[in-house]
Amino acid sequence: MSEFSIAEYGDGQAGLDYLSALTEAVPWPQASYKPFAEIVDLGDLSKLAVGAPSAEWRFPLLEMDQRAQLRDYCTGASSWVYIRTIDDDGDYGDYLALMIWPADEQPIRAGLVFDLVIRFEQMVLQEEIS
């Protein structure tokens, strides 16, 4: 079972719901993870990774109800949410993150949404709750 989960900011980390357990079950995303925002060059020619982690959830195909359910978490251009996502080591972690809805969302065809990509930025790893 996929551990991908999401919760509204007001519900906190304890409110995380599996995507597959939402009213309109949302399929697992194709996820990517960046452990830092950018690499900067230092004066001694070395490199330094700086900035908060980010992630993307790509949904190749969604039904309108599934899209609408995800959109409820981000009614504007962005919203703070809690997510559980996979990192580049294959481990899941809970994060407070800024959910960013795509400005260039693909048109809906035949009641289906193709290639929806949701970004999560300024991610802060949360302590595991028991």
Could you give the topology of this structure?
Layout lengths: L4 E4 L8 E2 L11 E5 L3 E4 L5 E4 L3 E10 H8 L6 E9 L5 E9 L11 E14 L5
Antiparallel strand pairs: 1-2, 1-7, 3-6, 4-5, 6-9, 7-8, 8-9
Q: What is the beta-strand fraction?
A: over 45%
Radius of gyration: 16 Å
The main sheet orders its strands as: 2-1-7-8-9-6-3
Which structural class should the secondary elements be placed in? mainly beta
> Shape, please?
globular
Oligomer: single chain
What sequence of helices (H) and strands (E) makes up the elements?
A: EEEEEEHEEE
Measured between the Cα atoms of the first and last residue, the distance is 20 Å
Number of strands: 9
What are the defining features of this structure?
single chain; 130 residues; mainly beta; seven-stranded antiparallel beta sheet; 1 helix; 47% strand
Report on this structure.
The chain is mostly beta strands. It contains 1 helix and 9 strands; from the N terminus they run ββββββαβββ. It has one domain (5-125). The chain is 6% helix and 47% strand.
Short description:
By secondary structure, this protein is mostly beta strands.
